[in-house]
Each structure stands twice: as structure tokens, then as C-alpha cells.
Amino acid sequence: MADLTDQEYLRGLLHGDSTVIKEIYEQFHKAIAHLVETNHGTRDDARDVFQEGLMLVYQKAGEPDFQLSSSFFSYFYGVCRFIWKNKLKKKSNQSVTLNEEMTSMLEDLSAPDVEKQEQLFLYRQKFQLLGRDCQRLLTLFLDKISMAEIMETLGYASISYTKKRKFQCKNQLVRLIENDPKYQELKY
Amino acid sequence: MEEQKIFEEIEQYLNGQLDAASSARFEEKLRSDQRLAARVKLFIALDQTLADKKALEVQQQIESTGQQYFPRNITEARVRRLSFRKKVLAMAAVLLVLLAAGLFWWQSSAGSLSDEVLYAQYFTTYSMSDVVRSETPEASAFARATQLYQSGDYQAAQTAFLALLSENPDDMPAAFGLAHAYLNSQPPQPDLALPYFHQVIDDGNTAYVPKAQWYAALIYLKKGEREPAKKLLEEIKGIDKKAAGLLSEIR
After folding, report:
1. Which residue of A29, A46, A161, B189 is most buried, as measured by CB atoms within 10 A?
2. List of chain A residues whose C-beta atoms are within 8 Å of the C-beta of residue B35
């Protein structure tokens, strides 16, 4: 795919368009990897920063008053830089400096904003590790579907088994989250 | 069961389904119990996060596409883990010397061993090498989880065993593996391991039951709860010499 406009990148990301997301990786992953790897980070750190950054852009772009004041890449790069700066600050006293232009471009971002996004990212990531059955069951509960309807939809034998299964699924999710060291870092 | 009740109570509280008195009692508990307060906070955050299905879908797309561009750097993780492991081994060696010296002093002066020391004396890391699975679609996922456990990556093994259990909560080998992963993590998490050993014991249908009884007994001992430990050891003393030996020491 060649030469997408900034608005096409944003629209594609907002729609979860797999072709556009692939193109964003294709175009920008080396730059983000370089940013992180030359600033005390690893390839795994770079992946986390890239993906959390993309989700942060997705969230911001979904806000009604969002205006892209630069190119998509400049904004995305700035967001990733902000995330990495924040992570480094928490890990140690090392930091990445942001120039004036970048600071003004990212004025709607704050460290609590970024950390909140990191939490959401972690919760969604762990939810996706659950089995399909568990994901479906928890989604039905979130949609406020009654216990009796869920029992019928999922073919469970009784209400009490449905309750037990719901507990098991939620318990697995909670354990997956609580056992991740990132959760302990982000908790407070 | 206790854990299930807590989960249900949190949800009833959040959904406004508790009556005024129960709600006030719950809030009182919240003020004094930090773990419960953190759980409530997590439940609220989870409900909000997972309600946004579009975000879930987009993140899934981002993560799955990313595997091609940012493959997991296993070597680096291993190197970091090894250097960490070296430090842990060095610390463990020092602790072992101190423990042995303490044990010698304790045995010669007090004549009986504390439950904590007995635990340290009897506890051995389970190898998981005899846990086998039939040829099922889950077999390779189980093999991967076991590999992580055997490589000493207990954190990753916990995640892998939990994922298997979320597919099938009655997967006893996975419950057994998860319990051991908790027990061997740093720091060890015996309170998290215990319910999974009990799940295997209550199920009663696998060859792991006596082993689950043995490790559950050790956990009770570590917690200073001799009665449930004795009860479990009584059940296996006929087939396990170590159990008989430990039972005679704590009677």
C-alpha cells in the first residue's frame, strides 16, 4: 500500500482496518524500535511502546474535539516518545528529552493519561488470553444479559453452574492481571 | 467457595444489589482491607474497559499484526533471566548455609523443629516430568506451559496454565501445574497454590491426587496449621514414606 494520507491512517486505525494497521507497522516500526533501543530499551520494550502508543492514538483520535496538528507520523512518534520517557522515568532516573515542538504537539497528554492507557492495554491483553468460552461468557454478563438467558445461550445445565463458570472465568482474568508485574507497577 | 462469595459480594455492591446494612458493612471492610479495595477498583476498571468492544477488537488487531514486526526476543529475555538467576542462586546458597547452621542449632538446642523449618526440609520442587497428556488439541499448549515451568519461568508458566484452565476449568493436570508454578515463584505464593491442589484432591480422578495431598499438607505446615496437614498426611502415609516420616515429626 502506498502513500496513505494522515486522515486515512487515522480513519483506518479507528475502524481497526487490518491493512492500515499493517501499513503503520510497515512504515514506522523501525523508527520506534530505534527510538527505544537507542535509549536504554530492548526490542520487547519497543514492541510495548509501539502498541500502547497506537492504542493511545486510537483513543485520542476517538475524542470529539481531536485535531491532528501535525503529520500522523509526528504525532505517533511523539506519543511513543512520551510513553517511553514516562516508562524510563519510572524505571530509573534516565530520561528522553522532548523538544519544544513536540511538547506543544502533545500538550493534551499527561503522565496519568499514559498510565491509564497502559492499564487498559494490560486488561484487554489479559482478556484476550482467556478461552473463547470465557470471553463470551464475560461479554454476555457485561451486556447485562440475564443469568437464565446466558445459561441457555451457552448451553449450560443450570443457573448455579453458570454462576460457578462466571466466577471461574473472572477469577482467571483477575489472576492473569494480578500476576503481571506491570499491574503492580501501575496499581497506584 | 469463599473466593466466589467475595467476588459475588463485590459485584452485588457495585450493582447496588446489597441492602443498606450489608452495603455499610462492606464499605467498612473496604476501609480496612487494602486487598479488597484493590479488587473493587480492578472490577470497576475491568467493567469499563471490556465494555468498549471496538477498542478490544482494535487492540487484538494491533497485537496480532505486531508479531510479524516485533517477534519476541527470547534470547534477550533468557540472558536477563539467567543473570537474575545467578543472583538468586548466590542468595539461595547463602540462605542454605544459614538455614543449615540454624537447623543444626535448633535440633541440638530445642529438640523439635519449627513448622517453617520442617517445610524447608521436606519441600522439593516438583519436576512435572511425569505429568503426561493424551493427544488432544490442548496437549501442545500444555507441553509449552510445562516447558516454561521446567525452565524456571514460573511467571510465564502461571499465565500458560491459567489460559488452559480458562478453556477448561476441569483440566486437572493444568490445575496441578499452576499450583506448582505458584509454589515455586519468587516469592512463593502458597495461598494461591492451595486452592488448586484442593481442586485436584476434590476431583479425585487423577494420579496426581496423592502428590497434591502431599504438597497441600506442606503448605498447611508452612502456615502453621498442623491439623489439616496431619489429616492429609494420614491419608497418604501408607503409600508415601516421606509423608509417614513427616507425620511422626509433627504428631
Report:
1. A46
2. none
